[in-house]
Prior knowledge:
Blueprint: H1 2-7, H2 23-45, H3 49-75, H4 81-100, H5 109-131, H6 136-160, H7 164-183, H8 203-231, H9 238-257, H10 260-270, H11 274-284, H12 287-305, H13 312-336, H14 343-358, H15 364-388
Helix pairs in contact: 2-3, 2-4, 2-8, 2-12, 3-5, 3-7, 3-8, 4-5, 5-6, 6-7, 8-9, 8-10, 8-12, 9-12, 9-15, 10-11, 10-13, 12-13, 12-15, 13-14, 13-15, 14-15
Amino acid sequence: MKQARLKKPWIRRKDAETSKASFPELFFDLVFVFCLIQLSHTLSEEFNSVSVGEAALLILAIWWVWINTTWVTNLLDTDREPVRYLLFALMFAGILMAIALPGAFAEHALPFAAIYAVMQIGRSAFAAYAFLPDDRRSAMTFLRVTAWSCVAALFWIGGAVGGLEWRLAAWSMAIAIEYAMPLLRYWLFRFGSADRETLSVSGEHMAERCALFVIICLGETILTSGRNAAEHMAADLTILVFCCAFLSTVIMWWIYFHRGQEEAASKAEETSKPEAVAHNLFTYGHLPIVAGIILTAVGEDFALSHARDDAGFKHAAAILGGPALFLAGNIWVKLVAGRHFPLSHIVGLAVLSGSAMAAPVLPNYAIILLATLGLLVAAVWEYIGLKRHPAAAA
């Protein structure tokens, strides 16, 4: 009994107060502002098929670190000192990872891979230890996660010591292993898969944490656009392009937070299968939303720095691809949340697709106008539809 009393306070209590995001969690999130800035800068400097593939792997890695940490802080009490120490350690490791990020596919491959692997393994092992005295089922789930993280770490470290082609292949395999783990319920040889719904997830907390991360991404987009606008203020189209960039960010905020985020939170909190729904809504569902915002920031950088240049495939892929990916992610989340199919988002995607066909003959400033129009059409259509039919989505 004495041991249980010592260990049990580490586990989050099931009440409204502790389901809210805590200050240590918000402090932890600040590290990822740096990560996102590093990533968007790296992609803006060199945007081609190879760099896009590399950036995709890095986005997947950054998101997986953050969302898995969110799962742990969803289950543990961050007001307890040992859990806070864990977050501070992850913060420090995250800053080192962000520093290594621009050279992850060059001279900093091994530091990046090693730091990433230590963060993943260490956090899961800590969670398993925290749950072991009181909740053996949850502890076994995190032991499974730790085992698979060790397997993935072999590919991370192995890829870091090889050439570029081998690194891409090995790191892709590592990402595939990690992203498949929840879908396979952390299957292990001779032990099979974990039981369903072994983790007592707070849907309200998970929804709030993901919403705050989206705010971080949108804020990073505004910071990046503002910095680039200041650098190119002498150009005659800078103000126009910056207004489009700012408006696009506001529209993305509206599309995500106007009813959609609230209903996703309600779905996660009220469902009888919180773990499965949380994976669909947050672990996987928010990934394209976050990636779309990051890519949008890169596209806005291109439009501000090369406003009069012909868009071509390279610039149009970022300027239009970011909003398209963002809308696709919102479609996924809103469908999982139980709403009707968001036709407004499909119309927005159609506008963006039509704009892509015109990209070879239009300059960047015209393409970003069309990208903003695509988002605006989706937002206005949905708003009007929700006004006419409050009980259903547009």
